[in-house]
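Handoff note, outgoing to incoming analyst
You'll be picking up this chain. Sequence as last confirmed:
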Amino acid sequence: MAEHAEESLLLQDDSLPDKSSDGANRSSSDRDLHDTFSLFKLYMDGKMDSLESKLVREQDAMSKKIKEEVSIKFKHEGNRIQFKFNEEIVNDLNKLYKSIPSTEAHSIRVVLDLLDKVKGRNKLIRIADSSPAGWSTVREYESNDIASDSEDEKKIRQAESRAMRTMKDKTKGRPAPYSNKPRVPPAETYANPTYNQQFQRQPFRNSAARREPCQWDMCFYCKQFGHWRKKLPPQIWICWCRIVWTCQSKVNLQMHPEIHFQCWDMAIIVQRYSSYFRYRVDKTLKRRKISWRCTAKGCKARLRTDCTGTVIIQQKNTHNHDTSDRDNERHLLRVRSKRKADDDIAQRPSKIIRTELQNMDEANLKSEDIGSVSKAIYRKRRVRPESGWAIDPFGHTPTMAYLLKKMNFKNMLIQRVHYAVKKALAKEKQLEFMWRQNWDQEGSTDILCHMMPFYSYDVPHTCGPDPKICCQFDFGRLSPSRWSCPWRVPPVHIHEGNVQERSLTLLDQYRKKAELYRSNVLFIPVGDDFRYDRGDEWDKQYTNYQKIFDYVNSKSDLNTQIQFGTLTDYFKKLYEVNDVAYGQKPPSYPVLSGDFFTYADRDDHYWSGYYTSRPFYKRLDRVLEYHQRSAEIAFTMATAYSRSDAYSNFPESALMKMLVTARRALGLFQHHDGITGTAKDFVVIDYGKRMLEALMNAKRIIVESMTYLTAKSKSDYKYSNDKPIFNLDESRENHDSLAEKSVIDVSEEGSPVIFFNSLAHNREQVVTVHVNAQNVQVIDSNGAEVPSQTDAFGSPFTIKTEQEKDFSVENSFLKAEFSGNTGFLKSVTTKDDGKQHKTEVSFVSYGISHGKEKSGAYLFLPDGPAKPINYMSPTIRITRGPIVSEVVVYHQYTEHHVKIFSSPGTDGSAIDIYNLVDISSTGGNIETAMRINTDIQNTDREFFVDLNGFQMIKHKKLDKIPLQANFYPMPSMAFIEDDSYRFSVLSGQSLGMASLEVGQIEIMMDRRLNQDDNPGLGQPVHDNKVTPNRFALLFEKRLKPRPKEKITGFPSLQAHLTSLQLIQPIFVIPKNSETENIPL
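Most recent structure output, in case you need it:
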């Protein structure tokens, strides 16, 4: 308004006519104009002063707000409080400074001095808080000006170094060279990406002069800062990729002088043309030169280095072995991995969880095979793991939950559960539950189980429900990388410009996932198969996630705190927020019982095929299992006896090494890609070779232990690596060949045979041996004759050909009737009650689905119900004898043996079945099964199958799910029953089974498939072998009707003993004909 008034006034003034008649009037007009301008100037000055004051106040408020938001993080609360108080004083002094008139120079000088002192004090507070030596660094920094003012950072570093040395000298006690106290880690290692690299100095100087380590010197042994490893451990392998050696294509070795004098007696590894050679010190020459010799057996290649570690003679001789020798590489990795594992266990925090190597299959294993707690962890740390981790077994069993609970585990995590089950549990927020055993009524077996909610365990399926978004936060896929996001939206680096948008996007997925659980604590795995094998991926994942964490944690309005942690950290926080003791049931958490078979990840893709894939190796696993168990028993007994004899010749050390090899091979194969039959062909061959070696070692342990135990005079026992005194009665030429029985050379003087029963009870059982004579008499250790039978094979006999009619064989317990057309079993009559039971054995086959998805190593996708295999008019061989009667049927794909034993033991009450299945000559895409139809009236189509040979669980055939969904794993037995009788099938190996009709049990035999089913194997299953399978059939009469409401069952004592007899046979140990006899 003032401007408009002035403009109007001027215009009016300019428009006035020029009148010079009256000077007084002109003077009056000039005064009025001058007064107007004076008033306008006063008004504008007042307005400018008001605006300036307002701007100053707003700027001070904004500055204070920014300083509060961008606050400095302190380690110690006291330092933070003092720093904040000083900052408030600085703000007040700044206000005072602005209010002092410029004419008062002395007052301004006093205020500025106070500001400098307070700011200097805050600098010292920050130095003390950031330094491991604390205020000792400040005292050194203030008292001794080592550097100039322009080199203040160097001054701080040197002050801190002096303070650390002073603290070390004060705390240094009496030297204790043999102390067992663990090394105290440095106060701070700066092992994070935000550490300023300009503070990092080289750990060694270029000169030979020695100096004491400072806070920024890194120990190459433990990778921590603040110290050096002054004495290297003997036999350490110094790898070329560490800081010790710098290897080029010409093998020009550079060694730091600081550790040069400590490496004389240690091996080195040289990388040359992408191949590994290992050398050891051969001898020390003059002038501190060293001659190095290749460690390969028989190789004469040598290197020579001078006093600085530089190779002066490249290679005296050429290597006589392949530079990519797998044995050398394996030995290198084994030595380095073992040392690293020991160091990690002994030095790192006790956040140890069950690893992938213990992530074994849960469908095909027996309970005694499921791994135990690592002995190395307990030996090194005296701590036990607390949380189970099972993300990849194809289905989960409560037996694992029970064993983890008994091993004092508090929690467990599982992943591969049917997608419909996950959906139902997620809807009710029951993905975390207490897993209880079926027989438990009090909750003593409860263990907290966390079920992952989505399709897989990789990053796209763990952060939330949208894999397209979650894949953007798998920073291991940042370019360049061998992985990419299939949704074509790659991840990006996190920086200040996108951290807010990226954080809120990720947080939205976290919140959606949290809606599926009951607590406000969320577990987000960040990993996948074959990941974190390169250092750059660790950096990518950590750096980018930490930026997101820092942003989210700094925003209180987001109500979220995120941090890195282990699985046990998650469970501890879960118990804490639920206000219950660690390991106790959180309030309102559900209790579930049962198993999680059969697994399906989508549609009708049921993973029931792997129950039977590669059955030859499943049988070999069971054979190795009982050999290893028996070897441990025999070895323990022999060792205990030998230690009481000061002059014992028992080779305890040599046999112990063999036993460890057997244990490791068995444990390795029981991985969830081993015993399942879902490994590649070359991996399966490696498994087989290891298992064969382990099997031979176990046999040798049994032979030597039993020979020592049965020797009348222990001094007569002599251990021979080439010619043992006794041998086992079978051998295998290759890992994929059948066992061949050894023939006992029987002479007039007799040939001793040792029988070893590894069970804890006496048993009477028929045992078969092969001899080279017809007329043989068997005498026990007391001289009494033992009933025996010699089959009429190996000498001329007459064959009587009869018309096709039914026939039977029997013993004192039962009578088995067979079809004359097929040679298969038709019925079994139990003689104690005279009841004839329908028992029709047949063989059937399944084809593959005609859709896009087909059966493979994992999946079973049949084209419909099974079709019978035509076995009319086969070759049938019948043998009857006083001890054993046998029927053998020869078909196109199967050699079917049925035996009846006339024995007073448990084997006399069961029918023994032995199948040799060979479908390797077929065109493929065929799956064979043995089907047994009985007259058991389980009209509800319920049946029982064992879980890991530990417990029985009830299943029911459901019509609403596909045929393949009704198949379940059968590690050792299954049975069906009605109110009067029970029919049991006992198995000597793990296979898939089903009960698709009333009174029916169907067991898969073998499968040959021409295509991959895409879960990960990447090849068809074509390496079929001649596969042996053993079974026992047992009919039992019930004393009272079955309880229909119970979901679990128990085998009878007869069935239990028969199963043990089938799985743990008696060992036959004949005398070696090439060695002399010793008194037994």
